[in-house]
Specification:
The chain is mainly alpha-helical and about 160 residues long. It is about 50% helix and about 10% strand. Strands 1-2 form a two-stranded antiparallel ribbon.
Length: about 160
C-alpha cells in the first residue's frame, strides 16, 4: 500500500484545501432541513394568526347580528303602531305574522309564522301588550349570546320609551 501523504511540509494552498475538506466532512454529517424549533415556531405563529382571524370574524358577525336585530325591532314597533294604533290589546307575533297581513317580513316571523327561531341569534321574538299601558308593547328577544347582551341592550335602548313616574 502506498502512502499518499508526502513527507514534505504542506504549502499554504494545500493546507487551506485540507482544512476546507475537513469542514465539509464535519458539516456533511449534520442533518439538513427544518429543525423541531422551526416547526414549533411556525405552528405557534400560525395559531396566533388563526386566533386573530377567528376573533375578527366573531366580532363582525356579532355586529351584523346586532344591526339586523335592531332593524327587526324597529320594524316590529312600526308594525304594532299600524296594527293597533293607541290600543294594542290582543297583539301578538302570530297576529302580526298572519298570512296576508303584511305587517312583518317572513324573516321576522320565521318559518312557523310566530317569531320562533327568527331572530339573528337563533332565538325567538315575542310581542304582547304592556298591561300597565295598552298603547305600548313589550317585545321579548331570546337566545342572545351572553357576551353581547349589554351591547344589544345599549343599541335597543333608544327604541324604547322612558316612563316618568
Amino acid at each position: 500500500m502506498q502512502n499518499t501523504e508526502s513527507t514534505h511540509p504542506l504549502t499554504q494552498e494545500e493546507n487551506n484545501f485540507k482544512q476546507h475538506t475537513q469542514h465539509q466532512v464535519f458539516f456533511n454529517n449534520k442533518q439538513r432541513g427544518a429543525s423541531l424549533e422551526n416547526f414549533i415556531f411556525w405552528m405557534i405563529a400560525a395559531s396566533l394568526i388563526l386566533v386573530v382571524i377567528v376573533g375578527l370574524y366573531m366580532k363582525s358577525t356579532s355586529g351584523a347580528r346586532n344591526l339586523a336585530l335592531k332593524s327587526d325591532v324597529g320594524v316590529m314597533i312600526a308594525a304594532s303602531q299600524q296594527w293597533g294604533g293607541n290600543n294594542k290589546t290582543g297583539i301578538s307575533m302570530t297576529k302580526l305574522c298572519e298570512t296576508g297581513s303584511h305587517y312583518l317580513t317572513n324573516e321576522i316571523c320565521g318559518a312557523t309564522k310566530n317569531g320562533m327561531n327568527a331572530n339573528p341569534y337563533g332565538g325567538n321574538y315575542a310581542m304582547a301588550v304592556d298591561p300597565s299601558n295598552p298603547s305600548r308593547v313589550k317585545i321579548d328577544i331570546t337566545g342572545i349570546d351572553a357576551n353581547y347582551v349589554n351591547v344589544v341592550a345599549n343599541d335597543l335602548a333608544p327604541l324604547s320609551l322612558i316612563i316618568a313616574d
